[in-house]
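agent> call fold_tool(seq_1)
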Amino acid sequence: MAFHYSKRKLKPREEEEMGELNIVPYLDILMNLILFMLLSINGLAAFGILNVSAPGYGGPSTTVAPQENPEQPRLVLSVLISKKGHFVNSENAILGQDGAPSVPLKADGSYDYAALNAQMVKLKSAFPSETKVIVAADPEIPYDALIQTMDALRETRDTSRRLLFPDVTLGAL
C-alpha cells in the first residue's frame, strides 16, 4: 500500500481576495449635495441682503460733488447703539440732553424702535433731502438690535413705508 499526499494539502492555500472599497458612488452623492447646498445658499442669500456702506477713511476727495443748496445746513446724522439706548447726534450737537440717550430703553429693558422711528420722521421732515446716516454700536450689542435699528432708520413704520435714511454707513467706535 502506497502512501499518497493529497494535492490539496501540497498546494499553498490562496488567501481570500479582499475587495477594495468602492467610494465612487459615495463621492458622487457628496458632490451633488455640495453643489445643491452652494446653489441653494446663493439663492437664499439674496433675500437677506442689506445695502450698507463701509466707513471711509481720510479726508474728503476732490470728486465729491458740491452741496446743492449752500444755504440749507447739512445734517450729518449718526446713531450710536449702546446698552442705555440710542444716541442720535448730528454734526453740531447730540440731540439728547445731559448725556442721556436720545431714545432710552423701554421699561422692560428692550430698545424702543418705534420712538427711534418717530424721531427719524421728525428729522426727515426738517431735512427732506438728506438720505445718509452713520450707525455705530457697542461691541456687546446683539446683531438683531443693529438690524432692527437699521430698519427703523430706513423707512416709516406706517402703511405708507416712506423712505427716511436709506443710505446706511456702518461706523466703528
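agent> call fold_tool(seq_2)
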Amino acid sequence: MSEKRARVAIVEDDPILREELTRVLSLASDLELAGAADCLAAGRALILQPIEVLLIDLALPDGSGIDLIREARTRQALFKIIVISVFGDARSVVQAIEAGADGYLLKGADPVEAASAIRSVLDGGAPISPAVASHILARIRPQAQAGAPVLSEREIAVLTDLAKGFRYKEVARLQGISPNTVGDHVKSIYRKLAVNSRSEAVFEAVQAGLINLKD
C-alpha cells in the first residue's frame, strides 16, 4: 500500500515556471499537484480545498501574494506556505515571514529545489535560499541586547541547521542526538523567543544576533 502523497497548490503567474513546478510534482512519488492558479483571485479559491503546502509568488497580476498568505493565516489554515519570488530584498522577505510564510525561495534556482523545500517544510524545516539569508543579514543589523533571550549552544546549533533547510532527522544526525531531542530543543527555542513557527524563530534569532547563517 503506497503512502499518502502530500497535496501541493501553486499560485504563480509565470506559465513557464508554473509548468516546471507542475512537472517536478508529477515526477515525485510523495507529492501531487492539488491545483494551480495564475492570480490572487484564483488562488483564494484554490486554498479552500485540502492541501498540505502552498507555493506562492508575491507579484501577482491582481495583487500581492502576501495578502493571500495573511488571509490563509487569519483563517488559521494549517498548510505550509513557501514563497517563490524574484524579490529577495529584506523588506519582501520580512513581510512574507511576518505574514506567515514558512519558507522563501528565489526564482532562478532549479525547480527541483522546490521539491526538496516542500519535503523540508513538511518535516518542520524552514527552507530559505542562501542568497535570501545573506541579503537579510546584509541589511538587518543584529540587535542583541542584554535582555535578549539566551539560547544554549545546542539550541543555536539546532536552529541554525533548521534555518538551512535540514529536516528533524537530518538535524538529529548532524548533532548526534535523537529526533525527539531535536523536538524538545525546538520547543525550548519557541518558548524563549516567544514564537510559533520555524520561520519566526529564524527571523527573531537573526535579528537578535543569536545565529549567523553566513557560516
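agent> summarizing second result for user.
The chain is about 50% helix and 15% strand. The CA atoms of residues 94 and 203 lie 8 Å apart.
agent> awaiting next instruction.
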